[in-house]
Fold this sequence. Notes:
single chain; 8% strand
Amino acid sequence: MEYNIDLKKLEEYWILYKAYFKKPLSEHKEKYKWPVLKQVFIKWDWSVNDKTEMFKNAFKVSGNKNLWVSKSYHPTNYSSKMFELFYDEYVNAFDFLFNEDNELITRVEEFQKINDDNYTFLSENATEKLYKIDLRAISLYLSLQFPDKYYLYKYTEVKSFCEKVKGPEIIKGRVNNIIAFNNVANEVLKFIKKDKEFLNKYRNFTRHKENYSDQSLHLLVQDFIFSVARHLKPTTEEEDIKHEISSLTKDEYGPNKIETLLTLKRSYKGRNINWEKNKQSQKRLGTKGEELVKKAEEQYLKELGILKKRIIKKKLDGVGYDIHSYDENGNDLFIEVKTTKFGKNHPFYISETELSFCKENPNQYKIYRLYEYDSESHSARYFIINGMDLLNDFTLKPTNYEVSKTKKS
Length: 409
C-alpha cells in the first residue's frame, strides 16, 4: 500500500494541536485518558494465574471509560463473559493474540473468530446486550500488553485522519486497517519526536502522579490523531469548504425560479423498505445533530456575553427552522440543522416550509450541515450555508409532489 503523508499538512495540524493541548480538561476533554489508563496499566498483568479477575479489575477505574464503554460499545463486558464461560479457550486465544512470533493479521483474525463463533450463544444467555469484539477492542488489548508497539485504534478517527493527511485508504471492516494505522502512527511518532521543546513540556504533564507516563509517546500520538480527526481545522481547510460551496452547480434559471433538473437516470427496480423504521432513525439522528448545534451556539453566545440576555429556543417542527439563535450583535439568527452519517458531499433534503422561510429571511437564515456524525462520541464535522447562498448557488430538485384531484370547471 503506497502513500505519502502530507508533511506540510501534518505540520499545520501539529501547530494547532500544541495550542489545543495546553487547554484544561474542561476544553480538551480527551485528557481523561492519561489518568484512566494509568489506573488500567497498574492492574494489567497477563502473567497472573487468575486472568478473569485481573481482567475485570483492570477496567474498574474512576473517571471516563469511553475507551472501552459507550452507548453501543462494551467489548470488555463481552470478554468478561468469555472468560467466565470458556476460560481455557479464551486464555489460549489471548495467548495467541499476544504471541509476537506469528503475523499480526493471523493473530487478529483468529481472535476475532473465537469471539464471533461464541457470540450467538453468549447473546442468547446474557442478561444485558453484548457487543462483538472489533479492531478497536483488539487494539486496546494489544496496547495494554505491548504499550511500546501498538496504538489505540478507532475506525472513524483513523479514516478521517488519513484522508486529511493523505495517508492510506481505510475501508471499514478490513483487518489490514490495524497494520496500516500502525504504520501511519509510527510515521507520526517520528515527526513528533523532532519537537524536543514540546516533548519537554509533555514530560512535565506525564510526571503528574495521576497521569500515565506514556514513555513510548504512543498515547500522545493517538491523541494527536484523534484531535486532528475531530477538533482541529486549519485555515486552509475552512477555505476548501468555502470553495466547495461556491463551486457547486448554480441554478441556471436564476435565484427567483427553481426548476426540476433531471440529471440522474431513474431506476424503477423494486425494494423492500421499512419506511417507519427509516423515519424514526432519521428523526433520532436529526435530534442528535440539533443538540450539538444548540450546545455550540450556547457556548459561542456565552463567550460573547449574550447568553445571559438571550435564550436560545429549540423550535417545534414545521416552522421552517430548528434553532433560534443570535449573531454577535444580538440580531436574530434562524438555524436549520441537517445531519448525516455520510460524507461532506452527501445530498440533503429541505422542505417547502424551510425554503419559504429562507426566502423571507435570507440574511438571517443558515443551514448547519453536519456530516460524518458518530453516535459513539456524539460528534460530527460541519460546514455552514448562508440563506442567500442556498438560494443563489445551489440547485434544488423537487423529489415529491402533492397530489389532489383536479376540479372540473
